[in-house]
Design a protein that fits this description.
The strands form two sheets. This protein has a six-stranded mixed beta sheet. The two termini are about 35 Å apart. The protein is built from six helices and twelve strands. With about 250 residues, it is α+β, with helices and mostly antiparallel strands.
Length: about 250
């Protein structure tokens, strides 16, 4: 079962040499940032839609290595969660630094592991609407059991320099035309969380928007809209301009 719906930016980068200067997790693997109610990042989690007892895949190893680097730079914790996409979330695979292998634990035990990172969870349910990449058993468990006092964002794209991340890039798309779209204030807690992770890791945080046409379907990446988001500035979000996917791939923003 696949939860990844495709993305024109990823597809372009995968097909061109410049894509070597970017990192993304691809399908069915997520690098998630969890923060407390104040949007302070507390733990980085690699979540993978794979059997809890399966051998590590190369994609999982790459994601774990990147998450571990980010955790080391930012001074926060890191862990790994694996869930079977074909089964309810009664058991998961779990690993963190110091453990020799992935252990199979209950979802209640998983909640306990997250609590020790300083995340105060409740049963109110998440307040933010899910997006089209969130319909997996793990993401539904996260919304149900972690509650609305935990802020979570996934890392869409990292721009690299000398093989190390220098920018976190949030990819946004909708049917709204480029001239009318701006980042939604409902997303600001998530953006603040990513901005704080970026600052702790000596990186920039950018938002890149493209239009997705519904009928006939087209993920239009020919023209992009760029924003810089920094929680230390007023306003947080600043419009940088428009550009092409080629400019993003070759030069960054």
């Amino acid at each position: 079962m696949a939860y990844y719906n495709g993305n024109g930016v990823y597809d372009y980068l995968a097909q061109h040499e410049e894509g070597r200067d970017f990192f993304w997790t691809g399908k069915d693997i997520w690098i998630l940032v969890y923060g407390n109610a104040d949007c302070e990042p507390m733990v980085l989690t690699v979540a993978s839609a794979n059997r809890p007892d399966a051998a590590f895949t190369n994609e999982e190893k790459n994601a774990v290595d990147m998450a571990a680097w980010l955790a080391g730079e930012s001074g926060i914790s890191v862990n790994f969660v694996r869930f079977d996409p074909a089964r309810p979330m009664d058991q998961v695979g779990y690993c963190e630094p110091g453990m020799k292998k992935v252990s199979v634990i209950s979802s209640d035990a998983l909640r306990g592991h997250f609590s020790k990172y300083g995340l105060k969870m409740n049963d109110m349910g998440a307040g933010k609407m899910i997006n089209d990449r969130s319909s997996s058993p793990y993401h539904e468990w996260q919304r149900t059991y972690m509650g609305n006092s935990v802020v979570v964002s996934d890392i869409d794209l990292l721009q690299l320099r000398n093989h190390l991340p220098v920018k976190i890039i949030e990819l946004k798309r909708s049917y709204i035309t480029l001239d009318r779209w701006t980042p939604y204030t409902d997303d600001y807690d998530n953006f603040i969380l990513l901005s704080r992770l970026a600052v702790k890791s000596n990186m920039e945080f950018l938002i890149v928007y493209n239009r997705r046409i519904k009928n006939p379907f087209l993920d239009d990446i020919s023209r992009l809209k760029f924003f810089r988001f920094d929680h230390r500035e007023d306003p947080y979000c600043r419009f940088l301009g428009y550009g092409t996917i080629q400019e993003l791939a070759r030069q960054g923003v």
